[in-house]
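FAQ: What does a multi-protein file look like?

Like this. Sequence, then tokens, then the next protein.
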Amino acid sequence: MIRKGEKIIHVHFLVSHKNYYFGSVTAMFKMFTEKDIGYSLEYIRHTLTEDGNHLLSDKALIVRARLIR
């Protein structure tokens, strides 16, 4: 049986090459600001509606994916 994995939001900062993983867009904004990421909370929620969707700003790459266990 294939189990549906948990949604994750992967944030990769382009300059520092650091990666962060979150369970939601809201959780991401508890650690980073719009200025840090390059997009607003509302815009990211509207855009990352399906697995595989991504955003690329001049500061970060943000990808919605599934964690497979």
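And here is the next protein:
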Amino acid sequence: MQAVEALIAPSLTDLGYEVVRVTMMGVELPTLQVMAERLDEDAMTVEDCASISRTVSAILDVEDPISGAFTLEVSSPGLDRPLVRQKDFERYTGLEAKVELRQALNGQRRYRGVLAGYADGVVTIVTENGATDLPFGEIDKAKLIITDELLAAGSAEEAKQGRA
């Protein structure tokens, strides 16, 4: 999916969006999921998703990087967003997350705790057992956990943007 992301990212950037993740799900009729967010960090709207969908569809029709039929799905990351980029771990420092590693670190693959930052290729997470440094390159999956703090942060962001 990196090839698809490389194809669509420049056009979406020109429109004011950033690709968060591109994944293919399903087998019978696969779904290409494009997750994006606004560069200005405003909330995504249905119109934003429709604009992205039209642009991505046009690019994929011309470039044809995926063989066979598939469904295109465009979405925003949502509150319990996946954390996939280094800057995601920086931006959401102080919030609770689940992180799963590709391989166990000190006998553990899954961590749940408060993100304490990102520096030099390392994500720090504070769990009930203390702070642990996780190599960014070893992270398989990570996402925010919906908590009162996350909801409050989302409400504060909406108020700042005049939507509350």
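Q: Is there any per-entry metadata?
A: Some entries carry free-text notes. For the entry above: The first helix runs from residue 2 to 15.
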